[in-house]
Amino acid sequence: MDRPALLICIAGPSAAGKTHFSGELRRSLARTGIPAVHFGSDDYYREHWTPDSRYGFDTVDAIDRDALIRDVQALIERRLQHRRRYDMGTRDVSWESLNEIWEVVLLEGAFGPQLLMDHLRPDLLIYVSASLPIRVIRRLRRDVRERQRSSLSVLRQTVMQMLPGERRFIHPLRDCADLIVRDVSTGLPLAIKRIEDLIRTSGAPAP
Q1: 3-state secondary structure of 58
Q2: What DSSP designation does 160 have?
Q3: C-alpha of 59 from chain center
Q4: What is the signed CA dihedral for 184, 130, 76, 65, rounded to 10 degrees?
Q5: What are the CA-CA distances from residue 94 to residues 19, 61, 119 (Å)?
Q6: Do 78 and 1 contact (CB within 8 A), yes or no?
Q7: pLDDT in tens, 160-170
Q8: With contact defined as beta carbons under 8 Å apart, do 84 and 93 qualify?
Q9: What is the pLDDT of residues 58-109, one digit of tens each?
Q10: Angle at Cα 83 formed by Cα 42 and Cα 126, nearest 5°?
Q11: Cβ atoms of 99 and 2 closer than 8 Å
Q12: CA 119 to CA 163: how far, in whole Å?
């Protein structure tokens, strides 16, 4: 297949449901015969990076910009052979073999899509949104269970770092999004339709 893979970015604030939506989108595309690969920009946090004094990890500066752009370009050209992984606990970076085929690249993350806008602008930018109370509850459950953090530290980070970081780096993406998703059941069909249209207009008929 000579045509470059489509780049779909799924952005939005912390715990809005980006990972869940991306997984559902990948499975739904597979059912229509469109293979997609799902990457998280969280895997591009800088190894052993010292958190920013104001935003902590809630800043685009925490992302290894060069590594992200390099790998996304390789994904679009279907030549990436190893997937980068970042351990939130140890802050270590590792790699694993990438043995997949794909027609669509789904890049999901709160920080990362911003870094591509002037270099590898996505074919479709999807912004996933959810109310702040729901997001705080989700973040508490995730960070306490999966990242072994205390509830107090999560709440402190939410107020002191997450919300200021979102206002500066994430909310502006909403204004340039092609599709805003507030509910998976309604947003998923719209996203699939947009992707099928992109494939069709790119010169390769959708399955």
Answers
A1: coil
A2: I
A3: 14
A4: -160
A5: 20, 20, 25
A6: yes
A7: 999 999 999 99
A8: yes
A9: 999 999 999 999 999 999 999 999 999 999 889 999 999 999 999 999 999 9
A10: 45
A11: no
A12: 27
> pTM of this prediction?
0.91
DSSP lists the bridge partners of residue 107 as 9, 39
Token readout for 172 is 């502006």
Distance (Å, whole) CA 164 – CA 145: 24
Buried b (16+ CB within 10 A) or exposed e, 150-181: eeeebeebbeebbbebbeebbeebeeebebeb
Tokens of 63: 């992302």
Collapsing DSSP states into helix, strand and coil, what is residue 106? Answer: strand
116 token code pair: 């591509």
Round to whole Å and give the CA distance between 169 and 186: 26
Q: With beta carbons less than 8 A apart as the criterion, state whether 143 and 154 touch.
A: yes
Token code pair at residue 150: 């205390």
Q: Which residues contact 45 (CB under 8 A, 6 or more apart)?
A: 57, 62, 63, 64, 86, 88, 91
Domain boundaries, the chain: 6-201
Q: Which CATH architecture has domain 6-201?
A: 3-Layer(aba) Sandwich (3.40)
